[in-house]
Amino acid sequence: MSDDVGDAADEQAPVTASYVSTAEILERESRLLARRQLARPGFWRSFVRRRVAAAVLVVAVIVVLTVATDGVTAAGAVRGTVFMLVALAVLTALDVWLTRRRVLRAHRAVTTRGCPPGTVVSASYSPSEFTFGLPGHRIVLETSSFASGLHEDRLLHLEQVDGAQWVVPDELLGPDGLGVVRSVLGERLVER
Which of 44, 74, 157, 188 has the fewest C-beta atoms lying within 10 Å of its C-beta? Predict the structure, then answer.
């Protein structure tokens, strides 16, 4: 019986915390997720390829029209090309702005749907697993599944080996949760 008591004493008691979800916290979470998605390698690759292809097509069409039409001068072709490329640049800038807004709006909808303002959320942190409780369900994450972590702007972003992502606000980490995360992730945790 004394061995059982000794084993239980060796195991660290989980650190617990809870908070009530607010619109401000959800906005911070949404912005972090949007920034991370927009910064992923390859996110803008197809966007840039399409714009470069459109610019090449514009120049090619103007060159073909200049050669095929007797009334178009070289100066007129250059002015037309410059005008079309400037218009394309303005439309591209607008499209970048709209894409950023769409991504943020999508993350805002997902985070709000998952944990609406006023929801009581609880958490338990131990070296082997992190448990998050919401009304009606519980999520248990094994700490061995974490590939990396980022702590910035009072948010902890955890990424699992399979690519799943979790955002935990400092309000849910409580005073001791980040210490457990540091001990579990070690060098895989980046703090800014």
Answer: 74
